[in-house]
Structure formats: structure tokens, C-alpha cells
Specification:
heterodimer; A: about 180 residues; alpha+beta; two-stranded antiparallel ribbon; 5 helices; about 25% helix; B: about 375 residues; mainly alpha; two-stranded antiparallel sheet; 14 helices; about 65% helix; binds iron/sulfur cluster
């Protein structure tokens, strides 16, 4: 069935176009003056203005490794994060902890831990899967580099960004 | 003696061409593009280009370096000629749009006569490149040439979008050229003059056509004639919009239907020439409107007459410069108006455009001539 859409009946003034055009011009110039006076919300001027203070707690930035309150590496090289990582950004080389070390009972720690930040999609699955709460997504988002090699975060760099997190999993303390 | 004067004429004309066309108009073109982007941004509550300033420093000057960077970018981009085009016409078209726009700058008076004392003699230089007696007619003749550039571009590109753009452009130009020509006949009737310099001088002494508030302008006749003048002004301005392919009449390059219209197949500097041509035409169009209706270079309320009365070496140079500044500020104001309109009004549909040109403006312009004649005869 055909649906008939009636055209709206325009009054004489509307048919003249000019009042409508002038109305439109007034609207746009009002916006122009408002933006000149800075009363409108415009795009943030990024490098000068930043949103860092408003980042929510659940913000997912760069994944990093953290140490616990005894300066122990939390990561035990279980490699769960390496397996779960959808784009395979994580590469772990597991290593032993020498028996005479204070944390010798933990057995393992990563010898090398690399996250390729070109691959990482900031999904947060590594953080979720980690049984030791050793890997966290921090609020750093401006990860830049001038070469591919520079974009691969090694263990040192990961700990540097990650820092220390206290009071999470303390199951190794009693085995000390 | 004669040879010396001729040489002087030659040199001064060259200087004027380089100064007005190359320096003033070209710079203005670049900065109109910038103004367009900034103005549209503030209208739409955005920021616009505000970064490019002095290279290798953090000084951004509110983005004033942007046009230069854009120009460099156009020069450095790959100049790509598609395989399927007709190369000769494809190369010819951008020049054909650019050149007429700049040529019509020749008759626009941009300042009063300059008197340069040199040795014992005083050299008089009228600040217009070609002081000819057919001003507006010359402008119409030349600007209508620019449609060839667009049509040739559309045809030689060998692409349906370009072709549509070219065809639309030609029919649009024809419809609006007529209204444009008819709409300034009342102006010519009132002023009885076709020489743009004299038109400006008459307005300087007796009130602008749109503001007859001093000199002989303070008469019943002038104020009654304001009615046809305003009608002329509106029709002429709208026709200039159509003539320069500006929104709301940018059907030849209407993005939503025709990709980019007649310049779809163009890239790098050839595309930039179309761009420059459009903006140059806009500037010259504003110049013509200002010259015909708003007293060209003259200051309002007869102030120009006081300035011109000051004779003597110093004033002979200063006065024209003041007038040049006045002309430029009027043109810039008009350009801002052009931009303002572009970012406020949506594009007309094609049949609406044709109807507006042929059914309304054509008739109104004709009736307007008659009205002017009646007023002039009755109130003689
Ligand atoms: S955030 Fe996602 S993509 Fe990035 S390293 Fe962790 S699991 Fe891989
Ligand atoms: S970061 Fe966590 S999940 Fe990844 S290897 Fe270390 S302990 Fe296992």
C-alpha cells in the first residue's frame, strides 16, 4: 500500500526563503561568538591539556609488571598471560631462582619478560588471568618510540613503569 | 618625453600587477582559506587549524603558518595524471579557471590616485591596473570564461562525476550570468558611468549607493532609489555566490552526489589551482560588489573628500594608502560574509537553483530596471 506523505504547507514567509536564511545566519553567528568567548566545549588541546587527572580507576593503559612490598618480583613465570594474550604480545623466558636466595622456595621468576606494545591491544586479559597479581594495566597511554625495537618493553622497563603494589597475594611470605 | 612617460606607465603598471595580483590577491587567497577553516570551526564549536607557526619552534601564532604549509604540501605532492584522461585539456583546465579570476582583478580600483613627486615632476598613478571605460562589462566577459575551465576539466577527466560537475556548472553559470548582468543595470543607470574608477569617485563624493548619507546623496531621489539598489545588491551578491560556485550553489562540486565534481580526477598543484581560482574569484567578486555598491576605496561620510583635498607630496602618497586599507577591509568583511553564509546554509537542490535563477531573479531584475527608470524620471 502506498503511503502518501503530504508536503508541509509553507506559509508565504517560509516560501520566501529569506527569513529562514537569516534565522540560520543568526544561529551560526551566535555559536561563533560563544566559541570566541570560550563558552562552548571544544576539543581538548592534547599535548598542552591532558585528561590524566580524570582517568578512571579501571582505565586500561600499558600492561606492566609489579613488585610486592618486599621488593620481590611477583611474577612466577607461569606463562598464563603469555598464553591468554590474544595478539601474542607477551614473550616470557622462564628462569630458576637460586636455592640460596631469600625467595628460593618460589622456584621460578622470569629471566626475560617482553611485551610488544605495537601488538598489545590493552585488553586486560593478562591482568585478569595472572594468579599472582603480578601484571597490571597502568594508566600510561602515550607509549611512543622511533623504532619497533624501542616499542618492545623489556623486564626492566616493565618494572620501572609498574613500581610496587602492596598487600595483594601474600602466599609466599610464610615460605620465606 | 613621450618615451619617458610610456616607460613610466609600463613600469608602474607592472608594479601594480605584481603588487595587487601577486602579492595582495594571492596572499589574501591563502589567508581566506585559513579564515574559512577557522571561522567554520568556531561556528561549529571546534578549534580549527591552530598549530602551524614558525617551523622548528613551539611558536604557533594561532596557526597562521598553515596556508604556507598547505601550499608547500600541494607543491610536493605527486602530480598524478590518470591514464584515461585527455591530457592536453586535462592540463589546460586548471589554468583556465585560475587565469580569468586573476584577470578580472585588472579593472578593480583599489585606491585613489597616487601622486609621487619625483624630481621636479609629479607622477600620477591611478591605483587600478587598467583604467578602462567598460569596467563591469569587462568583468562579466572575463569571469564567464572561467566556466570553460570547469567544463573542460569535467569533460577531459573522462569520468562521469567530473562530467556531471562540468555540465551543471555551465548551466548554472548561464542562468546566473543573466541575472548578474541585469541586476547592475540600475546601478549604471543611477551613476551614468561604466568606468569603475569614476563610479567610486562619484560614490565617494555623493554617498555610497547603499548608504547615501552625505553630499548629493542626501536627497529624496537617492533615498527612494535605495529600494531598487537594495534589490540589485541582493541579486548581484547571490549571483556572485553562484558564479564563484560557493555554497549554497556549489552544485558542480557537490560532494554528496558527485564525489568532488569537476576536479574529482585532479591532484596536487592542479587541484590547488582550481582551489585558488575559486577563492580568487571570490575575492574579486567581493571587490566588485564593494566597488559598485559600497563605495570601493572611499571612506564613509565624505571623509575621503577631506583627505583628497589635502594636496602636497606627503598626502599624495598617504591618502591612497589609507584608501587602499579601507578597500581591503571592506573586501575582507565581505569575504567573512561569504564564509559565514557557506557554513550556515545547506546546498540548494538543482531544480530549486534553476527556478531561483530563471523564474525569480531574472524577472525581479527586469522589473527592477523599470522601477529605477520610473523613480529617476519622476523625481528628476
Ligand atoms: S593487555 Fe591484552 S594484549 Fe596487552 S599484553 Fe595483556 S593480554 Fe596481551
Ligand atoms: S605475569 Fe602472572 S600470569 Fe604472567 S607469567 Fe607472571 S605470574 Fe604468570
Amino acid at each position: 500500500m502506498a503511503i502518501v506523505v503530504n508536503r508541509p504547507k509553507l506559509s508565504f514567509l517560509e516560501n520566501l526563503y529569506f527569513p529562514g536564511i537569516i534565522k540560520g545566519l543568526i544561529i551560526t553567528i551566535k555559536h561563533a561568538f560563544k566559541s570566541l568567548r570560550g563558552e562552548t566545549h571544544v576539543t581538548m588541546q592534547y599535548p598542552e591539556e591532558k585528561w590524566d587527572a580524570h582517568l578512571p580507576d579501571y582505565y586500561r593503559g600499558a600492561p606492566t609488571l609489579v613488585k610486592d612490598e618486599h621488593e620481590r618480583e611477583r611474577c612466577v613465570s607461569c606463562q598464563l598471560c603469555e598464553f591468554i594474550c590474544p595478539p601474542r604480545a607477551i614473550t616470557i623466558t622462564p628462569g630458576e631462582i637460586p636455592k640460596d636466595d631469600k625467595w628460593g622456595k618460589v622456584e621460578k621468576a622470569p629471566k626475560a619478560f617482553e611485551i610488544d606494545m605495537i601488538r598489545c591491544i590493552y585488553c586486560g586479559l593478562c591482568e585478569e588471568v595472572c594468579p599472582e597479581q603480578a601484571i597490571y594495566l597502568r594508566k600510561d597511554y602515550a607509549i611512543t618510540g622511533t623504532s619497533r625495537a624501542e616499542m618492545v618493553h623489556d623486564k626492566e622497563k616493565l618494572y620501572e613503569i609498574g613500581g610496587v603494589r602492596t598487600g595483594l597475594v601474600n602466599k609466599w611470605n610464610e615460605l620465606k | 618625453m613621450l618615451a619617458a612617460i610610456d616607460l613610466f606607465f609600463l613600469v608602474s603598471t607592472m608594479v601594480k600587477i605584481v603588487f595587487f595580483v601577486m602579492v595582495v590577491v594571492m596572499t589574501l587567497v591563502a589567508y581566506t582559506v585559513y579564515a574559512e577553516r577557522r571561522f567554520s570551526a568556531i561556528i561549529q564549536d571546534r578549534v580549527g587549524p591552530n598549530r602551524v607557526g614558525i617551523p622548528f619552534t613551539k611558536i604557533s601564532l594561532a596557526g597562521l603558518g598553515q596556508p604556507i604549509a598547505d601550499g608547500l604540501k600541494f607543491l610536493l605532492k605527486e602530480d598524478f595524471t590518470p591514464k584515461h584522461v585527455n591530457t592536453f585539456y586535462y592540463w589546460l583546465a586548471p589554468a583556465l579557471t585560475m587565469v580569468p579570476a586573476l584577470m578580472s582583478a585588472a579593472v578593480v580600483p583599489f585606491g585613489s590616485e597616487m601622486a609621487i613627486p619625483f624630481g621636479d615632476e609629479i607622477y600620477r598613478v591611478p591605483l587600478v591596473i587598467a583604467d578602462i571605460n567598460v569596467g563591469p562589462v569587462f568583468v562579466f566577459a572575463i569571469t564567464s570564461l572561467s566556466v570553460y575551465g570547469i567544463v573542460i576539466a569535467g569533460w577531459s577527466s573522462n569520468s562521469k562525476y567530473s562530467f556531471f560537475g562540468g555540465v551543471r556548472s555551465s548551466s548554472q553559470m548561464i542562468s546566473y550570468e543573466i541575472c548578474m548582468g541585469l541586476s547592475i543595470i540600475p546601478v549604471i543607470m543611477i551613476l551614468g558611468e561604466l568606468n569603475l574608477t569614476k563610479i567610486v569617485e562619484a560614490q565617494s563624493a555623493n554617498g555610497w549607493l547603499l548608504l547615501p548619507a552625505w553630499g548629493n546623496g542626501l536627497s529624496m531621489q537617492s533615498w527612494l532609489l535605495l529600494i531598487p539598489v537594495i534589490i540589485s545588491f541582493v541579486i548581484f551578491t547571490i549571483s556572485i555566490f553562484a558564479e564563484t560556485n560557493r555554497l549554497p550553489f556549489d552544485l558542480p562540486e557537490c560532494e554528496t552526489e558527485l564525489v568532488a565534481g569537476y576536479h574529482t580526477e585532479y591532484s596536487s598543484m592542479k587541484f590547488a589551482l582550481f582551489f585558488l581560482g575559486e577563492y580568487a574569484a571570490m575575492i574579486i567578486g567581493s571587490g566588485i560588489i564593494v566597488t559598485l555598491f559600497l563605495g570601493g576605496w572611499s571612506l564613509p561620510f565624505g571623509l575621503s573628500e577631506h583627505l583628497l583635498a589635502n594636496k602636497g607630496g606627503f598626502w599624495g602618497i598617504i591618502t591612497p594608502l589609507i584608501h587602499f586599507g579601507c578597500f581591503m577591509s571592506k573586501v575582507v568583511a565581505f569575504l567573512l560574509f561569504f564564509i559565514w553564509v557557506r557554513w550556515s546554509i545547506p546546498r540548494f537542490r538543482y531544480d530549486q537553483l534553476m527556478r531561483l535563477g530563471w523564474v525569480f531573479f531574472f524577472e525581479i531584475a527586469l522589473a527592477n530596471i523599470v522601477l529605477t527608470a520610473i523613480i529617476m524620471v519622476v523625481l528628476r
